[in-house]
Predict the 3D structure of the following.
Amino acid sequence: QVQLVESGGGLVQAGGSLRLSCAASGRTFSSYAMGWFRQAPGKEREFVAAISWSGGSTVYADSVKGRFTVSRDNAKKTVYLDMNSLKPEDTAVYYCAARQGGLNSAYERQYNYWGQGTQVTVSS
């Protein structure tokens, strides 16, 4: 069982930066791949980024590639999402998720555990 708690969301102007964190409980955090997803008002939840259990493999949605960076610290049981050059269209609730098996994935259904989400609002 893994419990996930996101933090770091907030209000930022376009062009600004934020760092989201996702703290995990449980002894086997390092065996899980971790993903970030987001859901904007009136839209379906979409994939943002994912990282493998070791951190050696990452994948990004085209919309954030070059602006967002996902990383993890297994000793701290925490995964991060560094968001730069933020745009109003990045406004959403951001969720982290854990996937058993260790390989990263862009598919929501392959994730087993989810956090409660953190709001990111980018003003123009």
Q: What stands out?
A: The CA atoms of residues 88 and 122 lie 5 Å apart. The chain has a mean pLDDT of 95. The two ends are 40 Å apart (CA to CA).
